[in-house]
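Trying the structure run again after the queue cleared.
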Amino acid sequence: MYARLLGFIIVASWVTATGWLVKHDLLPVWTASPAPSPLRADWLAEGRTVELQCGVFRDNGRIGTMWTIYRYRPQVIEREDLILLEDLVPQLPSLRVEGGATFTPEGALDSLKVELRVSNHGFPITLNGERFPQDFAFTLDAGLGGIKPFKVPVGEADMIAEAFNPFTTLPKLSVGQSWRMQVINPLAALLNLSEKFRPVVVRVTGREKRATNFGARDCFVVEAEGVTAWVDDEGVVQVQEVRLPIGSTIRLLRERYDETLHRIASDSRRLWELPEGEGRR
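Done. Tokens:
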């Protein structure tokens, strides 16, 4: 998930409430530099498994939970994501997203699969990607919308991010830093929105103290269109605020990992089967 690929950074695709960062724009842009690598060399050396959990809130009420698991192996880096949301927008009463990706130890994307299910739709949306010598080939299956193939040059497929889980780790930031990306939105197939890439610039605009679930922390402020994130000095994203086009704001708060709840949620095929608890309050 690293070398610019790992972060599953959601950036401005939250403008439509969902999206996958699929490539980092390598064209020269005077306002932007290469994306920071979320790679934690110490985690890779230790062969660690890193478990992250975020609560999703709107208007002081919880509407979902997100989990991200990193597994660091000598020859591969694996990432798994599970996202459960309720009442995000009127068209999407309940939503479940499962994602998986593999990377080389250097952080280059090797393969990925994402499946999105909505309670009032009988078909999932799936995004698959596979590396070839010259291109990274993607297929987007939107159910009734048919299968849409597209390719990204291997050299440009160095950032993948999932819409519902913006930033996870962004180490080694500095004030004034900026980078440019492109976003694609697979859920647009359900909402009849554009699926084309759109450019996004992300900037580190300053530092401030922020209240978190782990106490007050000095954080870098990272901003993009519709998104603000607070990243602590260890590179962990503690808080994110996402401004939706429908006029509301969603907050993502890092919280302690709940293995039991994650296991229950992982075994459930639909959001509405999840028992009452932290993920449904």
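Confidence is low (pLDDT under 50) at residues 1-31, 160-164, 277-281. Worth checking whether this holds up in the mutant runs.
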